[in-house]
Amino acid sequence: MAKFLIADDHPLFREALQGALANHYPELTLREAGDLDATLAALNEDDDLDLLLLDLHMPGSGDLYGLIRIREDYPLLPVAIISGSDDPAVVAKCIGFGALGFIPKSLPSAQIAEAIDVILQGDTWVPEAMRGRLDNLTDEDQELAKKVADLTPQQYRVLYLLHEGLLNKQIAYQLSITEATVKAHITAIFRKLGVYSRTQAVLLAERLQLESPTP
Question: Start and end of every HTH luxR-type domain (predicted)?
């Protein structure tokens, strides 16, 4: 009997994936989450999951941040990325940051189930066309991932808005917090990333290809 968590913000895709997996795993228990906060809450509540199927772009996840955060907090949980992208650079980073698989949403249900079987056995699965073609992460990127893993989801949101060039009062408005809270978050971000200016923080964010999280 298997238990999976599907973390994706599209209900229709979650429903379709449930149907496909139910045919392959007749005694499967599925949980669902639609954003990063709900995913972290589900992981905190249930330590008996066999696999997390994680969408890169669901609200709060911000491309690679969600994966890095989850791998830091739950290092023993197998994570497979489910994505509409098949960019080799993105696939390489996901595998480098700890995902055991990268499964394109465009795959037929039988192939998705086949990929999951491989991952549950402890092996890595990526699309056949990419096997042997993925670059390893640099030492600098691995070190940066460790630093980013220390950021809370709210600190990550502030980092993204810094990247967008917003002023403190604009960030406060976007996140419905005070300017004093924004300043406290920025101080913590600088400390955790080991930087001393907004420019340095933005450059580090760009190296991880961080994208917009939904507040």
Answer: 144-209
